[in-house]
Amino acid sequence: MITRCVVLRFLKFPPNRNKTSEEIFRHLQSIVDFGKNVMTEFFGENYVHHGEVVQLPLDFVKQLCLKIQAERPESRCDKDLDTLSGYAMCLPNLTRLHTSHFAEHRPILCVEIKPKCGFIPFSRHVTQEMKHKVCRYCMHQHLKVATGKWKQISKYCPLDLFSGNKQRMHFALKSLLQEAQNNLKIFKNGELIYGCGDQRDTAADWNELACHLKPFFYPSNGLVGGPHCTGTIIKELIHVITLTLLSSTDKCRAGDMRLVPSSQGRSCCEASPFSKELLRNGKSHAEGSGLPRGCLLYKTLQAQMLDLLDIEGLYPLYRRVERHLQEFPEERDLLQIDGPYNEAFYQKLRDLSTEDDGTLAYALTKVQQYRVAMTAKDCSIMIALSPCLQDECSDQRPVIPASRARFAFSVSVLDLDLKPYESIPHQHKLDGKIVSYYLKNVPPKKEPGKAGLLAEPDDCTLVLHKV
Ligand SMILES: O=P(O)(O)O[C@@H]1[C@@H](OP(=O)(O)O)[C@H](OP(=O)(O)O)[C@H](O)[C@H](OP(=O)(O)O)[C@H]1OP(=O)(O)O
Ligand SMILES: Nc1ncnc2c1ncn2[C@@H]1O[C@H](COP(=O)(O)OP(=O)(O)OP(=O)(O)O)[C@@H](O)[C@H]1O
Questions:
Q1: Superkingdom, according to UniProt (predicted)?
Q2: Assuming Cys at both sites, which of 88, 187, 312, 434 could form a disulfide with 110, CB separation 3.0 to 4.6 Å?
């Protein structure tokens, strides 16, 4: 008997939001269509798993929901799972290596990263200079800590991860391992072993994590325990994740549609501690940077950059569409606001002009591109790694080498549901909040080379003044 390891995804709604089974089915089908007809074009077939809608026996759904209810994080329980329609999305379990047929019984390590927005807005509509210097993630960290979502500011900066520069990527990944928040999870054989947003002691976590990882990276032992061993194993993990993130395993139509020249916008965020760290260690940016075109990070960044105008430039266009819909509500379907997400929908997304001719069509295209960009800014990347024996490694299968092991791997993208049209006013408000909180509460950084470097607390330079 062949058993398939799959993931079932149910819709969730605020309590008492009654939807008919037909509505649930159509909603799920539109998520599948969007993945299949739109996101696959941007990311490529190998990276996207759009899944399919399945109908399940209601008894099974009820029992399943009872079983998992206790496992659901409290913060997610403001919404109820739909248990009445019997419809769900069926997806491959991406914490398992799906490309391998012979390694089914091997242990599998899976790293999930939610990288967030990897570029600084280049739009001329941006009104706050700070938005051209500090990325949204780094600014948002301060608001999140102030509102109690997280306890401390992360050193992770998405621009480091998306830089394609191995040193910067290592720094970004190490920062994620130090402060995972909701940006990093690690699974072993499908079970979460690291990261889920709790606030445990990171040093203890790293030792525990290293114990889990040791058999993967040092299969024939040879490493004694202790903090040195932990550090070595974590370094190996970071090295392997970097290589998988830079690997190219797909081609896609939109890959040829280079959106924005990489020279546009800054490639470094002023809030990233990376440059500071490097200077402190006496190192410089020696290694080349830039992402290979076929890798998933590159494709993610290109889709994110469909946000050509920034929310500040986009919001007036949203208002234009909104005014039209208020006058002609019956045109919502015609304008494909909620789908169908078909070839025609995708083709319209390819128009990258930023010259506003005052038309509804222009506004609508920019709104839809923005929604796709927001989706790409909130998606996650899953990397599955499976140890691979010497004789199993063939030329057709990509393999990542570590010091004492080799890994077969797969890279996928998940959570590609199109962000709702209705969330745009919220985005606009949140953007204002993030920037104004940052401007009010974070003192401006001193420029390096001026007072900045000598003003470090551990600096002991004695400055003599003429008398
Ligand atoms: O706005 P952001 O950047 O805070 O992103 C939200 C995420 O917060 P994060 O910053 O990643 O901690 C947020 O993540 P959490 O649920 O807080 O883990 C959601 O992904 C949210 O999407 P949706 O509204 O549930 O579809 C995300 O909202 P969207 O902005 O993508 O709609
Ligand atoms: N196909 C999959 N294979 C393995 N794990 C998955 C898969 N899809 C989702 N997950 C896991 O479930 C988590 C939640 O998935 P996702 O964000 O898609 O759900 P959601 O319905 O949007 O819920 P939420 O609103 O809580 O984010 C992911 O972060 C990932 O850890």
A1: Eukaryota
A2: 187
The closest residue, in CA terms, to atom 23 on ligand 1 is: 419
What is the ipTM score, two decimals? 0.97
Q: Which ligand is nearest to the CA of 49?
A: 2
Ligand 1 atom nearest residue 417's Cα = 26
- Residue 95 CB less than 6 A away from ligand 2: yes
What are the Cα distances from residue 121, in Å, to 132, 255, 265, 372, 378? 6, 21, 6, 16, 16
Establish whether residue 41 lines the binding site of ligand 2, counting it when its CB lies within 6 angstroms of any ligand atom: no
Tell me if 28 sits within 8 A of 87, measured CB to CB: yes
- Helix boundaries (H) for 151-201: 158-161, 166-178
Q: Is 7 in the pocket of ligand 2 (CB under 6 A)?
A: yes
**% residues pLDDT > 90 (the chain):** 68
**CA–CA gap between residue 266 and residue 134 (Å, rounded):** 9
**pLDDT for residue 466:** 45
Closest CA relative to residue 157, chosen from 136, 185, 138, 183 = 138
Tokens of 50: 């759009």
**CB of residue 392 inside a 6 A radius of ligand 1:** no
List domains and CATH numbers for the chain: 1-92 (3.30.200.110), 94-219+228-272+289-441 (no CATH)
CB-ligand 1 contact for 423 (6 Å cutoff) = yes
How confident is the model over 5-29, as pLDDT tens digits?
Answer: 899 999 999 888 788 999 999 999 9
